[in-house]
Amino acid sequence: MKLNRIAQLQRREFLRRSAQLGLAGVAAPWALNLAAIGQAAAADSSGGYKALVCLFLYGGNDYGATLMPADAAGHANLVTLRGGNGGGNLVTPRASLAATTLSPRIALTGPGASGTQLAMSPALGALKPLFDAGQLGWLLNVGTLIQPTTKAQYQAASVPLPPKLFSHNDQQSVWQAGGTEGSTKGWGGTIGDLFLNANSTSTFTCINASSNAVFMSGQQAVQYQVSNNGAVPINGIQTSLFGSTQCAQALRSLITAPRTNWMEAEYNRVTARSITAEGIVKSALPATLPFSTVFDTTSSLHRQLQMVARLIAARSTLGAQRQVFFVSLGGFDNHDFLVDQHPGLLTQVGSGLATFHAALTELGGADRVTTFTGSDFGRTLTSNGDGSDHGWGSHHIVMGGAVQGRRFWGDMPVLANNGPSDVGQGRLLPSTSVDQLAATLAKWMGVSDTEMRTVVPNIGNFSVKDLGFFSP
User: Fold this and answer.
1) Residues 6+ apart with CB under 8 A from 125
2) In whole angstroms, what is the distance from residue 429 CA to residue 413 CA?
């Protein structure tokens, strides 16, 4: 075989597969835009800076313990449904919901809306002022769908359904990327693809302050990963190596010098760019915080959100006009110990998001950033005795200064075991698709209608493509 005849094809294939396999997301030298050679951007980045922040709740958040009926009949129904072995001990007492009962400016809609009044878990109490101020709302019964689906269609399998429903890894991927585990491109990263040329340093278009997530990978945009302390340095070149500065210098030369072999050359080129990017981030983040808002540094989520706020404050130095961020919190697979574990998780979510919004307000950028939550799936409405099992539809937060909040978007489902909104065991059939959520956020970022199918290929299956989070 004459390898020299396909050298260019090999190099091109290496670049393509490196991006697809997510090699750029697993370590600092690779947490860069490997394909940034041919940047492509074709979206409207006028109107100043904008950013999306995705908070993903790994494990499948229990919607019934997050946003619940507070009216007498609805609450009593929930207690009956979730009684388990403890006679309703999985349900927050109605008297405890007074402070977090929500008064929307627009009435609930949907088959389960009549007479229903909703309240957040008391653990989310820090978010109540934001809801009341119209800067936060709830998207009801959202989940993975390929097209609008009725219960009869689901039961007859007469329409295409999301693959591998109720599987953690697969549904995380379907939520973030529209495909099962192994998908290589998410809708956050695809939004990033369209704005690479809007940023003078394209490396900082998609920034992950948590673990690697397919949500942040695009065709060209690849997530740049940061720690709670900032950019992740390459060990051995920032300080002395084996007690020797000469060793550190030698290592730097080995991993950045030009090479004749195309694979070595490409690896060293990307590594050199990683070192440069680390220097930019290090200089962009001042030693003192650019805001006085105090985050709880004992909380992993608080630390991630604090870093995102610092990076947003440094957006001019980073050369960013459009950015997508990712943070996460795990522990939501509460088959057991729901009452013991779930409130503490929601406390982190509520206090973390409220503190993050306060920091953005202090920076004067709250109306430039929209934050939203996602999760593998919802959970069963019925109890297994000490928790809940894998479900489908769920309720999620949309927050930001540009959000026209103090309302519920989407339809309130009927909370009834094997009812019209339930496909079995209290698994809600989503009435709103993640695709519609993605399209609404992408439009706010500046993605045009003609480009929308690049971000959300199935959006044409839905008549409502803008859920109305923002003013026209």
Assistant:
1) 99, 100, 350
2) 9
Q: Determine phi and psi for 336, rounding to 5 degrees.
A: -135, 160
Mean pLDDT, the chain, whole residue set: 89
Interhelix angle 338-363/300-313, nearest 10 degrees: 20
Task: Report residue 376's pLDDT band, with 50, 70 and 90 as the boundaries.
Answer: very high
Classify residue 104 as left (phi > 0), alpha (psi -120 to 50) or beta.
beta
Evaluated on CA atoms 324, 330, 334, 339, the torsion sign reads negative
CB 31 within 8 A of CB 25: yes
**Average pLDDT, integer, range 290-307:** 97
pTM above 0.85, yes or no: yes
What is the Cα–Cα distance from 306 to 326, expressed in whole angstroms? 12
Return all residues near 60 (Cβ < 8 A) that are at least 6 apart: 168, 171, 332, 333, 375, 376, 377, 378, 379, 390, 391, 394
Which helix (DSSP H) or strand (DSSP E) does residue 295 occupy? none
How many other CB atoms sit within 10 Å of the CB of residue 472?
5
What whole-number distance in Å separates Cα of residue 297 and Cα of residue 310? 14
* CA–centroid distance for 125 within its chain: 22
Interatomic CA distance for residues 242 and 447, integer angstroms: 50
Q: By the 8 A CB rule, do 239 and 252 touch?
A: no
The CA distance from 318 to 280, in Å, is: 7
- The residue that leads in pLDDT, 208 or 268, is 208
Give the chain's count of helices (H) and strands (E): 13, 12
DSSP code for 374: E
The letter for the amino acid at 346 is L
Please report, as a single letter, which amino acid is at residue 245.
T
**What are the structure tokens assigned to 220, written together?**
């060209």
Q: How far apart are CA 231 and CA 33, in angstroms?
A: 15
241 neighbors 292 (Cβ within 8 angstroms): no
Is the pLDDT confidence value at 274 over 90? no
191 touches 452 (CB < 8 A): no
